[in-house]
Amino acid sequence: MATQVTATARRGSTFLRIAIALQTLTIFLQAVSAGLLLTSSYGETLHSAGARVMYGASMLYVLAAVLAWKPGGGSARPVRHAAGFLVLASAQVVLGIAHVPSLHLPLGVLMFGLSVLALARR
Questions:
Q1: Which one of 38, 83, 93, 115 counts the least CB within 10 Å of its CB?
Q2: CA–CA dist 101, 34 (Å, integer)
Q3: How far apart are CA 84 and CA 66, in angstroms?
Q4: 10-23: burial string, b at 16+ Cβ within 10 Å, e else
Q5: Digitized pLDDT (tens) for each residue of the chain, 122 residues in all
Q6: Model's pTM, two decimal places?
């Protein structure tokens, strides 16, 4: 029984690491598409589609954190971090739709930094 719980916890931890890596990659790609937004005709479409993917990756991070936490009964800290990140992603989407670049851009940089930090801690 203990072996099964350990294997399940290990799979949950691997899934969590993959979810954080995916989130980090999507945020980085959003920075690239923001540059394209300024220089090309298709940048806006790419940035808009990327925002949806990034938000989905943030939701996946929450799911992975819950799945990594529940079987092993460990600390709920990763769940709180993932939920906080989803709140930041929600604010980012709202600021982007409202065209408030003075807050949207710094928040994107902050989110990328926090995501890299979360990835390094895993």
A1: 38
A2: 11
A3: 13
A4: eebbebbbebbbbb
A5: 555 556 556 667 899 999 999 999 999 999 999 999 989 999 999 999 999 999 999 999 999 999 988 876 677 899 999 999 999 999 999 999 999 999 999 999 999 999 999 999 97
A6: 0.86
